[in-house]
Write a structure and sequence with these properties.
By secondary structure, the protein is an alpha+beta fold. Helices cover 43% and strands 13% of the residues. Strands 1, 2, 3, 4, 5 and 6 form a six-stranded antiparallel β-sheet that branches. A three-stranded antiparallel β-sheet has the order 7-9-10, with helices on one face. Strands 8-11 form a two-stranded antiparallel ribbon.
Length: 371
């Protein structure tokens, strides 16, 4: 029996709820007057959980829907303490896991993420973030990982596999060098976001035609381009859907020229082959050299195509130089925010983006029918 089940009666009492467990989607839930509440155990500090709960409440006050809120105890706390163990309840939205093959879901998730990022400047000014909720610099973690890959790379020099390893290491080095050069001038906007966001972490609710994030309680502070880049990698680089995602996101939260440069530098990193490179560093190579070389060529062409296409999106200003060139120091330019889109479950007229040849790299976990 889990700790949550063993303490369920005591936990429910602090929320004035009936201790009748309701397993939903492998989550332990309780029934409330307004729906379902998921039960979570917690080992962090009270400061962290209070900050996260306050941030989500402030976002709701600003009209942002789709984030699962903390449920307060009868004593108005964000967590219940039972025998020196902490537990908390959050709203739970049952629904179908989203995926990157549905244009409406892609745009709705991008819009929600953009709205959260747009509200972050004021929010983080009002609510100081605990140090433990600040994400470590991505480039530092990635640099350390790439160093392990290089140490093992000398063992794989022959044939297609050797060439694939060399190209992957060059991509990692070039990506990190570009990011480190760019952040000398501007490190992107720190925003409230969610760790490792993927499409299947969001659920689609047919009631209200809304996407929701049940794991919103796991929020932290990171750079905006990291979250956007992570979603694009998870989506698998489809041609039209990536533009739909970026169009909806930038409508809510425009990126300036340097942030676009940082995003492209982030995408250059070999995220798709991280697990294979880790296995190679452990002495268990499973890279298929010829296949990886073909995929790397496809990705390079896709990045060139994407850089050209994003400049055609409304309100987007991308530095005209190539992403390998570093823009001169300049003050941040705030782009005017366009009116917030209202989600529509159906579209009367199909939007057609310029096509890009189908490629097979970077398939996301949430795809059900992705080509």
């Amino acid at each position: 029996m889990s700790t949550k089940m063993a303490r369920l009666a005591e936990i429910a009492a602090q929320y004035s709820l009936t201790a009748s467990p309701l397993p939903v989607d492998n989550e332990l839930c309780l029934a409330t007057r307004d729906g379902l509440a998921a039960v979570h155990d917690y080992t962090g500090s009270t400061e962290e959980i209070t900050w996260a709960g306050s941030c989500l409440e402030q976002l709701k006050k600003r009209g942002i829907k789709g984030l699962s809120l903390f449920i307060r105890t009868v004593g108005d706390s964000f967590a219940a303490e039972v025998n020196q163990s902490k537990f908390f309840l959050t709203e739970y939205f049952p629904g179908t896991a989203c995926d990157s093959s549905n244009i409406f879901e892609v745009r709705a998730i991008a819009r929600l993420l953009g709205q959260v990022h747009a509200a972050s400047e004021e929010l983080l000014y009002l609510l100081a973030c605990p140090p433990t909720r600040v994400a470590p610099a991505w480039r530092e973690v990635a640099r350390e990982r790439a160093a392990y890959w290089r140490l093992a790379g000398h063992r794989y020099r022959q044939g297609d596999r050797g060439e694939a390893v060399r190209q992957l290491l060059r991509c990692a080095e070039e990506s990190l060098n570009r990011v480190e050069e760019l952040v000398r001038y501007y490190d992107g906007a720190r925003v409230l976001t969610f760790p490792h966001p993927t499409f299947d972490k969001f659920v689609y609710m047919s009631v209200g035609h809304q996407v929701c994030l049940n794991q919103a309680y796991d929020c932290l502070v990171d750079w905006s381009y990291i979250s956007v880049g992570h979603m694009l990698v998870d989506g698998g680089y489809p041609n039209d859907r990536v533009l739909h995602f970026l169009a909806a996101y930038t409508n809510a939260h425009p990126l300036n020229a340097t942030e676009w440069q940082l995003l492209f530098a982030y995408l250059l990193y070999p995220h798709e082959w991280v697990e294979s490179l880790d296995e190679l560093a452990r002495g268990r190579p499973n890279l298929k050299g010829r296949e990886v070389l073909s995929q790397l060529q496809d990705k390079a062409e896709w990045l060139d195509w994407l850089q050209e296409q994003v400049q055609k999106l409304p309100g987007v200003e991308v530095n005209s130089s190539t992403i390998s060139e570093v823009p001169p120091p300049q003050p941040e330019i705030a782009l005017p925010a366009a009116p917030t889109e209202k989600p529509q479950p159906t579209r009367l007229e199909k939007i057609v983006w310029p096509l890009f040849p189908k490629i097979s790299i970077g398939k996301g976990k949430g795809s059900r029918n992705r080509p």
